[in-house]
Structures are given as C-alpha cells and as structure tokens.
Amino acid sequence: MSRLVMKFGGTSVADLERIRRVARLVNAEVQAGHSVAVVVSAMAGKTNELVAWTDGSGAAAQGLTPSDDEYDVVVASGEQVTAGLLAMSLRNMGLAARSWMGWQIPIIADDAHGRARIDDVQPERLAAAMDAGEVAVIAGFQGVTRDGRIATLGRGGSDTSAVAVAAALKAERCDIYTDVDGVYTTDPRIESKARRLAKISYEEMLEMASLGAKVLQTRSVELAMAQNVPLRVLSSFVEPGEAPGQGTVVCDEDEIMEKRIVSGVAYSRDEAKISLFGLPDHPGVSSEIFGKLADANVNVDMIVQSHARTQDTANMEFTVGKRDAARAVEIVRAAQPSIGFDDVQVNDEVSKVSVIGVGMRSHTGVAKTMFSALAEKGVNIQVISTSEIKISVLIDAAYTELAVRALHAAYGLDQL
Asked: What is the DSSP letter of 198?
C-alpha cells in the first residue's frame, strides 16, 4: 500500500464544517487504497491570537532566561487542537485515526525557538501505525529539541513538517491543500488572465516562494527539492472527485517536457530600500556593514553600489524586509563613526517585481523584454537583481499592479 501525506492549512480547517470536508477528502484517499498521514495547521487566526497572548504576558524579568521556549509551548497548541478535532471527525466517519504531536513521532528540531529547523524525523512508530490501517493526523509547525522541549518551525512551518514527514516515510507524494487550486502564473487577484500551471520545477517554485508567492513556504520547497519529494498543490474547497485533474505538480525540471522561458511573475510589497551615501571606497567596508547586519539576523536581498561624485567614495543601496528596516538603519548608524559615510536614508514605499523561468538559461532577450515592458508603462527601475532563472527589479510601490500586468502580458503568460 503506497503512502500519501496530505497537508491542510489554516483556512482549510478554519471551523468544524471545513474540518469535516477535510475528513471527506482524507477518506477518499483511504478508499483509493492509500496509507495516509495528514499534517494540519492551526485553525485560521488561532496562531495570531496565541501570539498576542504571549505578547501580553510580557518579557522575562532581567536575569532570567528569555521565554522563547514557553512561547513555543503556547503557539504550538493551535495545531494540537486541529489534530484532535480532525482525528475525532475521521473516527465519526468510521475510520481508525489518531493524532500525533511532533514530540510523539518524534520530529527532532534544533533549539532555535520560534524558527527551529528540522534535524531528523524518526518515523518507525508512525509508519507502523499507518501500515496497520490507522490514519495519522499530525500537528504541523512543531518538533521537539534533543533535550525534550517543544520547538516551532516559524510561519508556514506546517508545509515543512509535511515534506519532512513525506521524505521520512518515503511517501509517493505530498499533497498540499490550500485555498487556491494550484500555482498560477501570477496573483489572480491582480491579473484576471493568470493561468494555473500543470507543472512547475522545484527551482522555479523556490524562486516564486522566496519572491512573494504565498502558495508554499520556502523551506518546504528547499526540503522537497533536496529529498526529491513530489509535491502537488490543490484546493481544499472542493468535495472528493469534484475537480479531477486539478492542482499543480512541483517536480524535477527533467519531468517537464515543454520548458517555458518565463513561468511566472511574482511580487513583494514587504520591501524597504536603504541608501548609504559617501561610503569610503576601499576594501572591507561592505564586509563591515553586512557583517553587522548578519550578526543581527537582518536578511539583506538586493544590493547595488555605484561611484559617488566625490573621489574615492561610493553610494550603496540594498533592500531588507519592512519589519527589519528600522533595526537595519539603527545598526548602520551605530557603525557610522567607524565606517565614515555621509548619510543614510530609508524608503519603504517600494516593491520588488520578479520574472521567473528555467527557460532563461537557454534563451536571450528576457531582460530586454522586461525592461521594455516596464518602460512602455512609465515604470522606473531603482535596483536590479538577477540569478540564473530570475530577474527582479525594485520599483515604486504605487506601480506594483501595473508592472505585474505588463510583464504577464509581455511574456505571453495569459496565452498558456
């Protein structure tokens, strides 16, 4: 009997009626002959509520250990509630089912509470229960440290839980059920002509996830690619058998016969641009700036440096997430006396728009098409960043939707 992992996000389990629909979808896979493990998120809005409670409790008093470990105890409880409710619904339908917490499997994680990474999954007990005919309902988003403490995996961590379990079980595939019926060429809320992709490569999905697409969590795609776990993105808002052939398969590039030059357009409004003026233009300056930011866990994305008008000086621009902007400026200003630059400015009214496609490796003119399409719409480019299969530009946030629609049309994505 082949093993299948199914994962359901918060909107899919938002209330009891939706949990019952999930149970019907699970039952359909059991009746089709699969041995099933189900990974669930907390009910929609529950994690935010729990986080607010931890914020209201306040920080640990001076001299005591920070309460990150207890934060994890609280926020991990949302998934526990969902797992129990789904197991009860499955039993109500006549299926053998039980809930599993991360520590019961166990899913071994490091001790970076709130953003832990999975070190190992030990699936023997889980596999034995599944092979005996029991549906395993697993609380996502959580693991256990080697000293026995609950550790959560960060926002979207249930996707990572599901992929890790699928890899450990050597599952046939991992189905990610969400509130959309697959991966689209761009956000359908912005471009009504967006098309659902039948297949997309791990690399393309990884770029789209990291560049703003919210369908899958970045770490889950990284893990799926590393472990070669086939993913399928599906809608949970259908009844079993209601939408045959739906969904998008995320797979190895070699499994896609027709490789598109560009597969999608992604965008992110969660950007802030920091500009440094009058930097000394000599070795070690960039290392000092970005070293201090890295030490503070500030993630830097796009970077561009240019010569300033004054001899032996340079100007530099880089982007960080909006939430990190104030901290990044504070860190840079603290380093101003030792580095000796003139000024720092921040602009959080910017967006990053990207085009992604494995076909870029073998086709020329992709950048020309992008820049021409934006120029025709009067969209000014502030910063450019490229990789082998993507081109990203930083633009004024007011032009985000215009840019997305222009690029979607320029690459013929509405014709797929």
From this structure: S
Give the span between the Cα atoms of 197 and 246, in whole angstroms.
10
Taking residues 34-51, report their average pLDDT.
95
Rounded mean pLDDT, 122-142: 96
- Look up tokens 């020309």; give the residue: 368
Measured between its terminal Cα atoms, the distance across the chain in Å is: 37
State the pLDDT at residue 192. Answer: 93
The answer, yes or no, to whether the previous bond of 106 is cis (omega within 30 of 0) is yes
Q: How far apart are the C-alpha atoms of 309 and 315, rounded to whole Å? A: 9
Who's near 4: CB < 8 A, 6+ residues apart? 29, 34, 35, 36, 37, 171, 172, 173, 175
Contact 173, 165 (CB under 8 A): no
Nearest to 389 by CA among 147, 205, 163, 231: 205
Least Cα distance to 156 among 112, 215, 217 occurs for 217
To which residue do tokens 């450990």 refer?
168
Q: What is the pTM of this model?
A: 0.84
